[in-house]
Specification:
36% of the residues are buried. The strands form two sheets. The chain has a seven-stranded mixed β-sheet with strand order 3-4-5-2-1-8-9. The chain is 54% helix and 9% strand. Helix 14 (258-271) packs across helix 19 (336-349) and helix 16 (289-298) runs antiparallel to helix 17. The longest helix is centred in the last third of the chain and has 16 residues, at 390-405. It has helices at residues 14-22, 25-28, 30-41, 51-58, 73-82, 130-135, 158-163, 173-179, 182-194, 201-209, 219-230, 235-244, 248-252, 258-271, 277-285, 289-298, 303-314, 324-334, 336-349, 356-368, 378-383, 390-405, 412-424; strands at 46-49, 66-69, 86-91, 96-101, 104-110, 112-116, 123-126, 145-146, 152-153. The protein is elongated. Adenosine-5'-triphosphate is lined by residues 50-51, 63-64, 66, 137-138, 142-143, 180, 182-183, 186.
Length: 425
């Protein structure tokens, strides 16, 4: 079947592209214009590049703005400072200065040519040649630039690939991957985010041939790509390709449970909730608390993220019940977020027999029931004559168990007499 003539943004012609860029909110933002102005006042040229341009042409929201320039980093810093903008030399060795204007941060990078590339630590030299800068980038759709007024500059034919939603390496896929093995994961991530139809066959063949190079990547770089990939629109198809190509196992240490992952996506749609990368990752890849720890270690997740993965796996060992009283106890003990995480994992795994309305009700409990606060604290126990020490906690825990079992009663007299009896008994 012939591909649609327009990309998802509905943009077909160069004139439409220029119009969309010229009207883009991010480009017209005061801060963005101030950065362009500061650089151009010095007689240099600046262009937005990468995700911001690509997404605008595809009709997708723009998260951050990268700017390329023929000014050297020292000039960028000097010019930005004299324009009164914030300057942070965040990556001088590869030519990047972060400029803060009107409260937003812009990464300004001097045009580069990679002299010798080995992963993140490519040896770079600066150039004034825009085409050279374009050809060291990864995919044609990422090598699109636009001027301050929204005029598209497309030295490598990336616009055509944007129009047909095609993710293609710039130059020889194999050579480009060998320069930086992260491009294997970026190939899948961009396909999952923006690809349409079949994956580019020459790119796919090359990533499979080079997959062993993944072992050279740092956990931090893998983490960023994988968290974006699992939340992308075509994550299911992409994960299938990665599994078939024995890449998923190299990255995550498991082939993952794709059926459970697909069910999660259906559930998110049913509940009209936004996807959360950690839940997506957990549902895909963990089956036990041990596996959660291993995955967290492998991807250098934060402590918070690790705890969430462990919590997700725990529900497989103690399934969600459809008894309202028990659900309230879980919600009370876990807190809103962890409770909901568990509902999603359990629902996607269908560890309990229940139909969609049951699951939905369980998930929505935090919206309809306000978790009451424990009526007593350690001070109440001490006020009743118990000496400070471990026994205070024991009494509190006993009382709490009773209180939860009794269905969170709130009548003050009943609670006080129960506590008194507990302590005296
Ligand atoms: P998004 O920010 O939406 O994830 P992006 O395209 O802006 O997408 P970034 O990772 O922010 O991606 O990188 C900005 C640009 O830098 C890319 O568009 C690409 O041109 C270039 N780039 C980034 N990483 C690499 C890489 N590993 N190899 C080659 N070029 C890269
Ligand atoms: Mg970006």
């Amino acid at each position: 079947m012939a591909k649609p003539a327009s990309g998802p943004g509905g943009i077909r012609t160069l004139a439409e592209a220029n119009l969309a860029l010229a009207g883009a909110e991010w480009l017209n933002a005061r801060g963005c214009q101030a950065v362009f102005e500061a650089i151009e006042v010095g007689g240099f040229c600046a262009r937005a590049v990468g995700g911001a341009v690509r997404n605008t042409l595809m009709g997708v929201s723009v998260a951050d703005v990268d700017i390329a320039t023929d000014a050297l980093p020292d000039d960028v810093m000097r010019l930005a400072r004299s324009a009164g903008l914030g300057v942070h030399p965040t990556g001088l060795s590869h030519g990047t200065v972060t400029v803060v204007a009107d409260g937003s941060a812009y990464e300004v990078t001097t045009l580069r040519r990679d002299v010798e590339a080995h992963g993140r630590h490519a040896t770079v030299s600066f150039t004034a040649d825009w085409a050279e800068d374009a050809s060291r980038r990864d995919f044609t759709i990422n090598a699109l630039y636009c001027s301050r007024r929204g005029c598209l500059f497309d030295p490598l034919g990336g616009f055509e690939d944007v129009r047909s939603s095609r993710v293609r390496f710039i130059g020889s896929p194999q050579d480009r991957i060998r320069e930086d093995y992260l491009r294997i994961l970026r190939f899948f991530r961009f396909f999952a985010s923006y690809g349409d139809g079949e994956i580019d066959p020459s790119g796919y063949a090359a990533v499979l041939g080079e997959r062993d190079g993944l072992s050279t990547l740092s956990a931090e770089r893998i983490r960023v790509e994988m968290l974006k990939l699992v939340s992308a629109p075509r994550s299911v198809d992409t994960l299938a390709l990665m599994q078939k190509g024995r890449i998923l196992a190299l990255v995550l240490g498991t082939d993952g449970d794709r059926r459970r992952f697909e069910r999660l996506i259906a559930i998110e749609t049913e509940l009209a909730i936004r996807s959360d990368p950690i839940i997506r990752l957990g549902v895909l890849a963990v089956n036990s608390p041990n596996e959660s720890h291993r995955l967290a270690q492998r991807l250098r997740l934060s402590n918070d993220e690790r705890t969430r993965l462990v919590n997700l796996a725990e529900v497989l060992e103690s399934p969600i019940s459809f008894n309202l009283g028990e659900q309230k106890v879980w919600l009370y003990r876990l807190g809103r977020e962890a409770y909901r995480d568990r509902c999603l994992m359990a629902w996607a795994s269908e560890t309990s027999s229940g139909n969609a309305p049951d699951w939905r009700q369980a998930f929505e409990l935090p919206d309809v029931w306000e978790v009451p606060e424990m009526p007593f604290s350690g001070k109440d126990i001490i006020d009743r004559g118990v000496l400070p020490g471990p026994r205070v906690g024991e009494f509190l825990a006993k009382f709490e168990d009773w209180w939860l079992d009794a269905g969170f009663p709130l009548e003050r007299e009943l609670l006080i007499s129960k506590l008194d009896r507990l302590i005296k008994g």
